[in-house]
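Here comes just one.
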Amino acid sequence: MKLPVVAIASAFAFGIAIGLWPMVANRASSRGFYFGEVGAALFLIVAAIFLLSRQYLLGATIFSLATWLVLGFFGATIAQEPKSKKYILNVIQSGELDLHMPLRWHGVLRDEPATLPWGISYEIELTSVDYRDVPISVHGGLRASYTPRAEDLALPSVHAGDQVAIVAQGTTSTTLSRRRRFRSPSVSSFARN
């Protein structure tokens, strides 16, 4: 019986659609509003459990679907939350960094290095970047790819959670999107020098 899954997915998607509606999204970015959404979801869950314990299946079903609607709405409003000033793309857009030269990027590996047919890819959670010998605190993501050549030395063995620093010239994914559309807008991509 697939109907419950379809109903839950539809309620969740409808909640997301309501949360992304501009009239609602512009007013839904306060902490009080977030607490209200969580409170409403908890109330609906408790009400659904209460109705279920009293054998009111239709009422429990309606409250359960309303919970999924509120959770979809909550997810959409959180996703619209603006990024901080130290978010890497905001730092680049403000002009604090010039990506026309190689920079030293510091961070922590998010995942194990991925072996690709053309080399190795690293997903790094940024902590800072050295620009003109001054460290700038940032956060966000960086995707670095490395294609080894025959004359290159072997790379050190690194694993998820390791602190790393790389020197690379960066390009934002918005620049890359003109050429390749599969990059995430929240991750900066970097080419080898």
